[in-house]
Amino acid sequence: MEAPLNADFPLDPSNPNPAQRMYWVGPRHLAGDDGRLYDAIADTLAGLGWTSLTIVRGRQEPDEQPEDRQVLRSTVLHISPDALRWAQWVLADEPFHLGDLPIAWQISARQDVGNPLAQWSAYFTSDVPGEVLVDFLTAVDARDQPATPLGGPELVIDAVTAHGWIRDIDQSATAAIDPTFATQISLGDVPPLIQDADPRGALISEAGEPGLVGWQAWAEPVPGARCLWAASFSASTPHDLVAAFASSLSSTAPVLRRVLPESTQARLLRAPAT
User: Fold this and answer.
1) What is the pLDDT of residue 228?
2) How high is the pLDDT of residue 195?
3) Distance set, CA 57 to CA 38, 106, 213, 231 (Å)
4) Cis peptide leading into 27, omega within 30 of 0?
5) So what's the pLDDT on residue 8?
6) What is the rounded distance in angstroms from the CA atom of residue 190 to the CA atom of residue 192?
7) Sign of CA dihedral 76, 231, 197, 73
């Protein structure tokens, strides 16, 4: 659920539709995606020169008109010029869930074009702030070898603590939380169905042993209630790329919004954009 950003300010007579007014809001990790998560990412990837492909699957009966075709699944796939990285919009494609939230974007990279399998994959639900995903994809695009490990877990924690986040007392090197205790990032067990090239994940899982660990992030504005958004990075995702996500997520710079998630309205500072 989203609400227009007009609760605290009088209406502008020159703009009769308050939902179209824009506001600067913060903190960004609770600001939602403004209902533009696909457009924001697709525009960024187009600017980076990525190619987009629409994949449609369906069923058509004999003598049925094309417009009457039953579309069963459809996805939009964006591929980098070197074909080493790709981003897939899966929200309209019967997505699987991260926690209890449907995944919107899946981003992957591989070592070389001769290997069809992704070395790592990252998953993002709706209401991940678009600015954060844009910064993550820009970092992925800038890497000559997007699947090569670089740096350690400290890069991620240092990125958020530099913006005032608090290290977890019990996991100071691998977990942190924002000052309002609404959003967390940690290196922990990877959820089911997260794709990674490391075969140990499946082997360990079948043996009943602890699985691989990867970075997980989520916003839970109301403890015990449904999360606002969630993100999951498979075990082989380079730490420096996760750090780019974490740095943008924890940034204190405000973001422009027309609408806000209802669960976070009361927790956000806002000012009209002039």
Assistant:
1) 97
2) 85
3) 20, 19, 34, 27
4) yes
5) 42
6) 7
7) negative
**CB count, 10 Å around CB of 42?**
17
Strands, sheet with 269-272, edge to edge from the N-terminal-most edge strand: 255-257, 23-26, 269-272
Enter the tokens of residue 162. Answer: 């530099």
Three-state SS across 36-87? CHHHHHHHHHHHCCCEEEEEEEEECCCCCCHHHCEEEEEEEEEECCCCCEEE
What residues pair up with 146 in beta bridges, in sequence order? Answer: none
Assign 197 to helix, strand or coil. coil
Q: What is the pLDDT of residue 109?
A: 98
**Among 115, 101, 74, 104, CA closest to 191:** 101
Backbone phi, psi, residue 96, to 5°: -80, 170
CA distances from 256 to 167, 246, 274 (A): 28, 19, 11
Name the token pair of 130. Answer: 């678009």
Residue 153 to residues 38, 139, 147, 173, 238, Cα–Cα distance (Å): 29, 17, 16, 7, 9
| Contact (CB, 8 A) for 253 and 27 | no
Whether the pLDDT of residue 194 is over 60: the answer is: yes
% of the chain exceeding 90 in pLDDT: 69
How many whole angstroms separate alpha carbon 189 and alpha carbon 209? Answer: 11
Alpha carbon distances (Å) from 258 to 8, 18, 22, 221, 262: 13, 9, 5, 20, 13
Nearest to 228 by CA among 49, 31, 54: 31
pLDDT in tens, 94-126: 668 898 899 999 999 999 999 889 999 999 999
Which DSSP letter does residue 98 get?
Answer: E
Q: What percent of the chain has pLDDT over 70?
A: 82
* C-alpha radius of gyration, the chain, whole number: 20
